[in-house]
């Protein structure tokens, strides 16, 4: 053992201590004994040489580690000694070089050594530490293995020593060099682990740079290291290390960068990270707030991982409601924003495309999050269920329904259903909860909200019948509440479950039991629902039979023997229909609407299974014979169809519906090939092969004979005789109501007969056709004679064909969807045939009329009258038929039977329009005669009806965005003349067929028809054409919309139309169809011309505008209303735009970089576009405030202006930068908007208000004045408040931006707006007027002073700022004024800075 160092006692030179070997040093370390040799400066080189020698040994790791640790342990005994401190520095430097040059292994031994070095760093001289750190930074890119980064553990200690000696600047320079160097994936991971220790040396900027470099380099990190890396980042965030950036980076990386790799390993990694996030949020709730705030602020952040994070955070009780709420709001906002951007014409196309991409991304993200929910993230399944049902509940009122089939989007309802379907398929544990939630929500929600849930249940039943059958007990519990549900909900529920009946007989039997009980309830709605449910059960049985399933045996749970015997599985002879005939028979004794539902249901049954028609006829025949007596003089017992209850007459038996049902069943039955040409009814014979069909054939023959008798009876019957036979004893009022009811039933019966004749007419020969046409004329005449009874205002009687029930939007799967609506008695094919007949008769009548006019003879008035009657009947019936057309719900057999191809009505309808239009030209010469006037009026009425029908048809066609068949048929049938020009040649070259057909339809049909009707002064018809033009043009791109807008402007400039409604329609076309910004330019020109026509002074008004003759004294009010309505629409758009600009501003201020797709650019583009539009609106409104408007329009103008100033104030407030952000100079567009607003709108607006109030004082009607004052007390103070609020923010913006924005603001009148009382004596009034003028003058002077104060160089001084932000320059000192100022409610909102 070496002796302890001792002091020399001799006066000579001290002898150097003997050198030590490396082994001796190791032994000394074990003994913890220092040797004098270590204190000698000359020994350092030798000691370091031992380190290099050991590094070259066969086992360098152990050798170097043993020696280095021994030497460090000895140094630690006296680290403050200068010699040992120098030795420590040299040793650390040498070891670092060996480590970085890979001369020694990187293993646990080296890690142990480096950790011991880290404890002694404070004894190393700062200059040496700086050199060591520099060497590490230079070789940072060489560290490629996980153990190579061990040397980085000394960095936190080095930074601590450097900061203590040289300050943070030195550490910042080194950190900058570290961030600039290239990092391998292991260095990146190591830096994240060290970030917690380095946090004290990182400011916000460098911390953000570190996170950006980490998230940028995470792509290269091994997948198995990502969960640990994410966990460390979350730990950092929980310690307050840039929480927002950490959460943002994790959600961006796993949502977009890593999200493109859809392997199972990636999904497992994401699932583990989700668990880490969930745990971190539980430990630190502020992280949950960051997650929610991030998605709330930026809609583009909603990638699939962000959705999963929100669903995972929702499992934390504290964030359950907020997380679900923000996710639901984000989805709904994505749809609503896209819908708005799609419909808003002045938004940039890039922004529209962006919102479409957002909503598509939202749908894909949510569906992907659900589909991947079985990869280590099962804990989010309950949240998915909760979220999906919350989305379904948001569908009340049919929100977002129009988006379901537009642009390939699913829509809210379809998205929710798809989520739950996928979840139902993937997770067994979720099925029970989904069925339970369906049950609870059907029972607890309002009917409008329950229907989407039932549609979901239907989708589950159709897609996964066997898994749903595992929960049949819950379905039975739901059916137990059948009688307590809303009628439509109960009907839809049974229809949704009907598909399960073929798999589970017990469920079908239970449903029948529930329905049987419901049938005996007192409530009408319950009985109606039960009837619909019976039909659904029967349809399910027939459908399963048609599909080849002849047994309803349950594959999962066998029914008992007694049940099998009670309801057999084979239905070859009657089957379930026979079993339920008792319930159906009870329906025949219930209310009329229940009977209607049953008749429609039986017809559906025959449509699904035509072979069941015989059984249905057998069932209906006895009931029918109660109302048909073949031997009586009045064979049709209409009196038995009505009854009196409580002084009201009601229809008890809808005999017309019964006849329609039976007639269709007879037509649908197979018939023999030997058709009797004498009558259509011969086709009602049957040729069944079964033995028992003889009886059924008798029922069909009985009905056929009955219809023949009814048809003959109605042809020769007298209306008064039929109606008089129904009268009994009672009051006259009851008798009149009785007649009305009978007339309704008779009119329906006639329509049934006409439908049959039209079908027969299709196949008739020429001779037979003439007889049938005469028969049609007789029945139409009979039908018209009933109108005097049925068209009277009905207090207790409802004509079911004219009124549609306010029913729910029934789901497409409900097979009885029209039971709540009246099914027309006339089919589409029948109406087409009747229309062709009317065309034929009208053509022949026109030719005879032309010949008669040439021979100067009278028109054959009787034939003309008959022709007009059939046209009137056909057009009225067609209009009702088209309006009842169920758009998008045509897949049901009954609707297909009735409506068929409704576009077939287009060509004959257009031909009829052309004939009626030409007839108007012909009849103009005879208009002076009474009969000629009547003919012209009739033709105009018929033309009006025909155009209404065409408009409804076009509406149906346009709703189907991929179909132009109707328009093509109309173009091929058109006989209108049109001009061929260069524009038409350009149209014919349009590549998109949908657009080309629409454009040519406008040019070939609508515009020529408009010109002809305008020449005839057919103003009501022109309005309809304008509506059609607007509808079609809304489907066109900007170029062709603008073309039609130019045509509308040409009409306005070339026609002096005096009809106000037509002028308003044409002006709306000219403005609305002009592409922005041309639309507001057109509005400006029209407003200037309006100012000349209705100027402020009467002596300056003109009769008609020279540039726009359509603007004249007769049409000025209508056109001004049209322009104000257009301005109001833009101001409404401003509300949405301001919300988006506020969001853009927040995103920009908080440096959200989650979505790097040019969001800021989009925001600034929208802002600049908004300023330009607002400037144009100011120019339009500036003309209106100079007009002499009537009171309603003046009030409307002031309300619009108040809203406009409110949005201007919001614009100005958004231009003010919050604290900590750089204030930008307002753009030139904004400055020009402020200047024009102050000059052209604010100043004249005060004069307009003063003039409006002065006009009130001149009005002698005191009551009118009082009412106007009450109204103005609401909107005039609000207008003044909004103007002052706007100017307040302009003052603030001027102060912070050093730009004088109020140099043109000059208030010109007093703000008191005191109402002067005319009842005062003549002396008081002038004095009051002078006092008001004096106050106005003082206010004028004070505001000039304020304007100078704002524009002065000392504007930024505190005193000036206080004055500028104070009273807004009100220099009035009277008590009332001071009281008003003290009570002002101008306050800064909480979110102002």
TrEMBL record:
Residues in domain FANCI helical?
286-367, 553-790
- Composition-biased stretches (Basic and acidic residues): 1313-1322, 1331-1342, 1380-1393
**Pfam families, A to Z:** FANCI_HD1, FANCI_HD2, FANCI_S1, FANCI_S2, FANCI_S4
Taxonomically, the superkingdom here is: Eukaryota
Q: Which residues form the FANCI solenoid domain?
A: 124-282, 380-535, 1083-1320
Region spans: Disordered: 1-21, 1313-1393
In which residue ranges is the amino acid composition biased (Polar residues)?
Answer: 1-12
Name the InterPro entries for this protein.
FANCI, FANCI_HD1, FANCI_HD2, FANCI_S1, FANCI_S2, FANCI_S4
Annotated protein name in UniProt? Fanconi anemia group I protein
Specify the species. Hevea brasiliensis (Para rubber tree)
